[in-house]
Design brief:
By secondary structure, this protein is α+β, with helices and mostly antiparallel strands. It has four helices and four strands. A four-stranded antiparallel beta sheet has the order 2-1-4-3. Helix 2 packs antiparallel against helix 3. The radius of gyration is 20 Å and the shape is globular. The N and C termini lie far apart (79 Å).
Length: 147
């Protein structure tokens, strides 16, 4: 009997997992947070790793990106570093549709670093790389009618 079966009080309930390839990994906050995590665990400098991820995300049609790394970065004293590029919304209902966020913990020798990645997705009428509904404050300007 596994720990999971004890926790859900189930007998031989088979756990089924489905793995699917991410459509656009550059616009997935979870994928980018994991990528940053492995870069930091591999010993890459924080600034270099974050700017690399930021560049990759912004080069793949994201509207904006923000990466926050906090913890003991170099010295004993903990601090936070923010890396931002582009346009990011933070309030209202559109945040749930347009902003993809992920948080990961990086266990290093000197302590734990926290990594937060937020990616502002672009408007996409087909709905493949971003939401198919435009932002409520988006303004479209039509050409004047000829009389």
């Amino acid at each position: 009997e596994t720990g999971y079966q004890r926790r859900v009080h189930g007998g031989e309930s088979g756990v089924e997992l489905y793995a699917e390839k991410v459509q656009n990994r550059a616009l997935s906050a979870i994928t980018q947070a994991e990528s940053l995590r492995y870069k930091l665990m591999g010993g890459l400098a924080v600034r270099r790793a974050c700017y690399g991820v930021l560049r990759f995300v912004m080069d793949n049609q994201a509207k904006g990106c923000e990466i926050i790394v906090s913890g003991k970065l170099r010295a004993q004293r903990a601090k936070a570093m923010k890396f931002k590029d582009g346009y990011m919304i933070r309030a209202g209902h559109p945040v749930t549709m347009f902003v993809d966020s992920a948080t990961r913990h990086v266990l290093l020798r000197q302590g734990v670093l926290g990594v937060k990645v937020s990616i502002m997705l672009p408007f996409d009428p087909e709905g493949r790389i971003g939401p198919n509904k435009p932002q409520p404050d988006a303004v479209t300007i039509f050409n004047p009618k000829e009389d």
